[in-house]
Amino acid sequence: MINNKLKVPLALLIISFFIGINACKKDLKNEETIEKDNTPYQLSYGKFPAPAIAGDNQLTQATVLLGKMLFYEPLLSANNQMNCASCHNQANAFDDTAQFSIGVRGLKGERQAMAIFNMAWNTNNFFWDGRSELLRHQSTKPIQDPLEMNEKIENVIFKLSANSNYTNQFIRAFGSKEINELKISLALEQFMNTIVSYQSKYDDYLDGKLNLTPSEERGRKLFFREYNQFIPDSSGADCAHCHSGFNFENDRFMNNGLDASFKDAGRFKFTGKSEDEGKFKVVSLRNIALTPPYMHDGRFKTLLEVVEHYNSGLQKSATIDPALEQTRGTGLRLTNQDKLDLVGFLNTLTDYKFINNQEYARPN
To answer: For a surface tag, which of 25, 76, 147, 343 has the fewest beta carbons within 10 Å of its beta carbon?
Structure first.
């Protein structure tokens, strides 16, 4: 016969046992019900032409979120303290205002960090020298670069696999909790493809929502007007020769007259072709006011310095762009006011909605 004093504790033990069993079943059930989520991600890009997103990596909400988680994840670095956003800060159009970014070992990078936006419209490879064909190929190189995050992919996979938030999100994104380099790269590619800047003051001007100031308007005309050696009064800065179209770039690699001889051979280091010596990727001028310093080596601290380079500082070399070479003898003949007006126009390309868009911010 059971002692009455033991009846209540024993009953509680039995009840607790069955509650525990049911809780375990509930947890298992919840884990089993995590499934791949193919809900499309609706990309906003205003009046830009539709981007050509890779057919094998169409945007989904689950994969974009995974990519954002990874972009801000310090576990991708050797010291678990550095992430992609360490060198690509949203407030600076996902760029770094240091001349050369500092990696986990305290070492400087070899080139100035590049801004990340409107990648979905990029058609001529990635990095200053174009050594990565697709954004997915670019995305994992900084993780493994000794000057940057200095981590091995196998270590990244191990760390992420031990985190249920990641294994669950990989299931939602790819249908399996298995983590590998390809999935990491595809997720990062998706997130970076969603980072779009299209709502600057200049875009509002094009839509007829506002007028530019007199200085900005003069700068706009100088920007788009071609250089004319023989009629100085009607000559412009000819900036649109290289920075044209809706994204203010031309998807080319060019030598813009920075040096007569090359400490950094640029695209030549990747292709080995002599005609590529001293050539670098032409970058977008959108948000340019947010991304100092300028050029592949960050040699210019201000936009006025950049304008002055094209006005009077071009250096002759075998691969300098022909359109720039024809201005080298006389210079652009810009007045001080012309230079200020050009910088004023460039400032209208800043997109404040973009740098404050929570879609791109660190996930909670």
So the answer is: 25
